[in-house]
């Protein structure tokens, strides 16, 4: 570990878990403003924390420990046959673009994605304030990995950028292109970008094995999970180096 556990931490109130409805969720929230920098945040990622908007948090639920932070050592990643097929399905009409600034055409795509794909979720109905407060922050550089079909933007992966790692925050895409498995494509694009920029890890957020919405994360190997305050290999649960 490269970071000590912060001394200034708050504890949120309990509220209903959006992933496991039968559980109550509670969060540790970083209060020390000195932690709000790319370098310090990278150390906190190693301790199982994550970002939402400007806030750094980690689950600290009273009766549940199902959330386990998941990361990929990108230089060791091996795409499966299925992942290779999906990537190769993209013709020369598709291209990946990297942008360091939010663009005006992002929000209409986000709005369409939430409205058509997540009508049963907490982010529906979408609005611009919610979009900004969830995805962006003032103290961290963000990379936007875009997928284009000809002259049409069809997917954006919002990706936090630290010195030695990336953290996948959220991907939204045009549901009209769902048959291209764009969720998979955008994770593979983030892995490729991490490799190209010589980073060690891509953090994929929290894994909850009993939540169907998160099972896709288990398809990327090798992976490491943060279990009982150590990183272990996801399959064998042996301590990772």
UniProtKB/TrEMBL annotation:
<comment type="similarity">
    <text>Belongs to the R-transferase family. Bpt subfamily.</text>
</comment>
<feature type="domain" description="N-end aminoacyl transferase N-terminal">
    <location>
        <begin position="16"/>
        <end position="85"/>
    </location>
</feature>
<comment type="function">
    <text>Functions in the N-end rule pathway of protein degradation where it conjugates Leu from its aminoacyl-tRNA to the N-termini of proteins containing an N-terminal aspartate or glutamate.</text>
</comment>
<dbReference type="GO" id="GO:0004057">
    <property type="term" value="F:arginyl-tRNA--protein transferase activity"/>
</dbReference>
<dbReference type="GO" id="GO:0008914">
    <property type="term" value="F:leucyl-tRNA--protein transferase activity"/>
</dbReference>
<dbReference type="GO" id="GO:0005737">
    <property type="term" value="C:cytoplasm"/>
</dbReference>
<keyword id="KW-0808">Transferase</keyword>
<dbReference type="GO" id="GO:0071596">
    <property type="term" value="P:ubiquitin-dependent protein catabolic process via the N-end rule pathway"/>
</dbReference>
<dbReference type="InterPro" id="IPR030700">
    <property type="entry name" value="N-end_Aminoacyl_Trfase"/>
</dbReference>
<protein>
    <recommendedName>
        <fullName>Aspartate/glutamate leucyltransferase</fullName>
        <ecNumber>2.3.2.29</ecNumber>
    </recommendedName>
</protein>
<dbReference type="InterPro" id="IPR016181">
    <property type="entry name" value="Acyl_CoA_acyltransferase"/>
</dbReference>
<dbReference type="Pfam" id="PF04377">
    <property type="entry name" value="ATE_C"/>
</dbReference>
<keyword id="KW-0012">Acyltransferase</keyword>
<dbReference type="InterPro" id="IPR007472">
    <property type="entry name" value="N-end_Aminoacyl_Trfase_C"/>
</dbReference>
<dbReference type="Pfam" id="PF04376">
    <property type="entry name" value="ATE_N"/>
</dbReference>
<dbReference type="InterPro" id="IPR007471">
    <property type="entry name" value="N-end_Aminoacyl_Trfase_N"/>
</dbReference>
<dbReference type="InterPro" id="IPR017138">
    <property type="entry name" value="Asp_Glu_LeuTrfase"/>
</dbReference>
<feature type="domain" description="N-end rule aminoacyl transferase C-terminal">
    <location>
        <begin position="106"/>
        <end position="225"/>
    </location>
</feature>
<keyword id="KW-0963">Cytoplasm</keyword>
């Amino acid at each position: 570990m490269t970071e000590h556990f912060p001394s200034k931490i708050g504890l949120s109130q309990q509220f209903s878990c959006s992933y496991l409805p039968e559980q109550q969720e509670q969060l540790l929230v970083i209060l020390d403003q000195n932690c709000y920098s790319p370098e310090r945040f990278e150390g906190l990622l190693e301790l199982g924390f994550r970002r939402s908007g400007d806030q750094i948090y980690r689950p600290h639920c009273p009766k549940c420990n199902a959330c386990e932070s998941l990361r990929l050592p990108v230089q060791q990643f091996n795409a499966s046959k299925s992942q290779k097929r999906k990537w190769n399905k993209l013709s020369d009409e598709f291209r990946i673009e990297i942008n360091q600034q939010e663009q005006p055409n992002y929000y209409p795509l986000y709005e369409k994605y939430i409205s058509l794909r997540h009508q049963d979720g907490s982010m529906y109905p979408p609005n611009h304030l919610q979009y900004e407060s969830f995805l962006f922050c003032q103290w961290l550089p963000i990379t936007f990995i875009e997928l284009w079909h000809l002259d049409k933007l069809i997917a954006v992966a919002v990706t936090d950028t630290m010195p030695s790692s990336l953290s996948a925050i959220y991907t939204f895409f045009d549901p009209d292109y769902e048959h291209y498995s764009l969720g998979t494509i955008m994770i593979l694009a983030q892995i490729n970008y991490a490799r190209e920029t010589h980073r060690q890890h891509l953090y994929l957020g929290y894994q909850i094995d009993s939540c169907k919405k998160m099972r896709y994360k288990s398809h990327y190997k090798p992976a490491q999970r943060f279990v009982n305050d150590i990183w272990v290999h996801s399959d064998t649960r042996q301590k990772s180096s």
